[in-house]
């Protein structure tokens, strides 16, 4: 766990410039950690943690009082899904291992976890960095949202509202750009965007609310991860 929290600090704090309030210097720790399951990928040679996800189950979300996503979005329209819905968060991979294998291992472990615990829905905040070519700007995030709302928007009954919206109407949404690799991966799996992005000033990101249901998993990945 401490290795995972140290990796998170290095990626979010040092690499991405997030402002992290923590009880242990050099580690990313928040109140949700003690309530989450933590998926870890270890390097076989060094046994160092090189990839991690945390998963908040419905029962543990009730214990802590909310999900992390609840702090960024009004999730009222998802209430019918909560009994079988997990929240994914704090996904990161060591920079020396970002070749796809680590994230595939994490997704495989996640699929197994979902099936074993009879859960079928995943939500989370997928982050888009506000820093682009050395300049802090929301134009890239606004452009990605403009693209995805036309191609990957969830049905209206699942739409959520950001508590601190990114002011997309005042930004340039015409930039030709692609979503970050992790978001592209989610979309290939069959995930949907639940609404406009929120601004997270601590992490200096625009966060897209996303939902993935096992029933919507692309057939290619269904066979790979679920064996069916």
Automatic annotation (TrEMBL):
<comment type="pathway">
    <text>Lipid metabolism.</text>
</comment>
<dbReference type="GO" id="GO:0006629">
    <property type="term" value="P:lipid metabolic process"/>
</dbReference>
<keyword id="KW-0443">Lipid metabolism</keyword>
<comment type="function">
    <text>Catalyzes the first step in the biosynthesis of ornithine lipids, which are phosphorus-free membrane lipids. Catalyzes the 3-hydroxyacyl-acyl carrier protein-dependent acylation of ornithine to form lyso-ornithine lipid (LOL).</text>
</comment>
<comment type="similarity">
    <text>Belongs to the acetyltransferase family. OlsB subfamily.</text>
</comment>
<dbReference type="InterPro" id="IPR052351">
    <property type="entry name" value="Ornithine_N-alpha-AT"/>
</dbReference>
<keyword id="KW-0012">Acyltransferase</keyword>
<dbReference type="InterPro" id="IPR016181">
    <property type="entry name" value="Acyl_CoA_acyltransferase"/>
</dbReference>
<keyword id="KW-0808">Transferase</keyword>
<keyword id="KW-0444">Lipid biosynthesis</keyword>
<dbReference type="GO" id="GO:0043810">
    <property type="term" value="F:ornithine-acyl [acyl carrier protein] N-acyltransferase activity"/>
</dbReference>
<dbReference type="Pfam" id="PF13444">
    <property type="entry name" value="Acetyltransf_5"/>
</dbReference>
<protein>
    <recommendedName>
        <fullName>L-ornithine N(alpha)-acyltransferase</fullName>
        <ecNumber>2.3.2.30</ecNumber>
    </recommendedName>
</protein>
